[in-house]
Specification:
With 195 residues, the protein is an alpha+beta fold. It is built from five helices and eight strands, in the order ααβββαββαββαβ. It folds into two domains: 97 residues, Single Sheet (N-terminal domain of TfIIb); 66 residues, no CATH class. 7% of the residues are buried.
């Protein structure tokens, strides 16, 4: 068969129409297993609570609907919010997998520390980790703190520490983190959404 531009457009249109119509025919001729019904039953108000939220992966700010089980108090479903003006219910691949932030059996829940030049991790408690982080920040700040610059002007800054913010923080958390970093004298304060 000779392919002309007209034939190509016909076949492309027919293929696109078939792909678009495929979801309409999904499940026809197959017996229902009840799984879809059970899933929908879990999301009803008597079994779960629906809360609006914002996606934490990038700075776009897509809206989410989070369903939390009333029995286990854990997230059971996360989907796009159709009433949100930014994403109107659509989510990217990362946003669609948002439930894995809290409901992931592979997520690390303990503090692990590896000594320099070691190849093994040792489990540490939270208090030890907080004290160690605070000590490292203090030591680095003390080592690199400049009260005055080369011209003799008061600058009160540290050039040995930088801060990289996160889109997972809301406005209030960003403000608090920014104030804390500036109080340490940081000059290099950045946000991942600007990179």
């Amino acid at each position: 068969m000779k392919i002309t531009r007209r034939n190509f457009v016909k076949f492309a249109s027919a293929t696109a129409a078939t792909i678009a119509a495929a979801p309409l025919f999904r499940g026809l001729g197959h017996a229902s297993t009840g799984k879809v019904h059970d899933r929908a039953k879990q999301l009803t108000p008597q079994w779960s609570k629906q809360t609006t939220s914002i996606c934490a992966f990038c700075a776009v700010g897509c809206g989410l609907l989070v369903h939390t089980s009333l029995e286990t108090k854990r997230a059971i479903n996360v989907e796009g919010d159709p009433d949100h003006p930014i994403n109107e219910g659509a989510l990217c691949a990362k946003g669609a997998a948002t439930i894995q932030i809290s409901e992931n059996p592979n997520r690390t829940t303990k503090c692990l520390h590896r000594e320099p030049f070691s190849n093994t991790f040792v489990e540490k408690d939270w208090d030890w980790c907080k004290k160690r982080i605070a000590r490292l920040i203090k030591d680095s700040r003390d080592k690199s703190f400049e009260e005055k610059n080369a011209e003799g002007k008061v600058v009160n800054r540290t050039m040995g520490i930088a801060s990289m913010g996160s889109a997972a923080l809301d406005n209030e958390e960003c403000y608090a983190m920014h104030c804390f970093m500036r109080s340490l004298g940081l000059v290099y304060v950045e946000h991942q959404a600007r990179i």
